[in-house]
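note to self: dont lose this again. the chain is below, predicted strucutre after it. 212 aa total, dont forget to put it in the shared folder this time
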Amino acid sequence: MRIVVFGADTGLGREIVTELVHGGHTVTAVLPAHAPVPGQWRGRVVLHPGNALEAGALDDVIAGTEVVIDALGDCRGRRALSQAAAAATAITDSMVRLGCYRYIGLRPDVLLAPAGKRLSWGGALRLWQLRCGLRTREETAQAFTAVARSPLSWTILRCPGLIDGPARGIRHVAMTHRHRVGSSLTRADAARFLTTQLRHSRYVCAAPAISN
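---
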């Protein structure tokens, strides 16, 4: 498949691109101009350095693509999460215009909890660690809504805190906030789960939460 990965410079984005390359896909990695590029990508990944979200550039990146994987959500801090939410909306609009209908992405699980829901101790800690205010939470929810209400075939992973380390296997899957999952997920497992969605339709138009 022809796949574009936004946020290829994030820890999760690097894992995703590597998984896709091993799977034989044609991958375009969107990353900042001066971001380091892993040696195994050379000659195997189309690099798109710079801000693809600038006016006009986004359509050029997505045109002719079959699948978009958005890893921009693997970030920390209020500003970065706000930018990731805005990017998701812009990416969605571009995909609809160009007829690219498969979107795969992620959002922090604690930021998508229904308003007024009491967070678990672990969820409250993650929310504090992310330093996210009400505005960021609303922006993230709005971005989720923009994707979910679009005509795209979307899958959004609601993930707990992402950590580095080898794959451990997914132990918990929840489809609603009534069911709890663990407090962490390795980026390797998140990448495997997200890239697996290229071959399966179980979670199309769904937002599962998973953890180790």
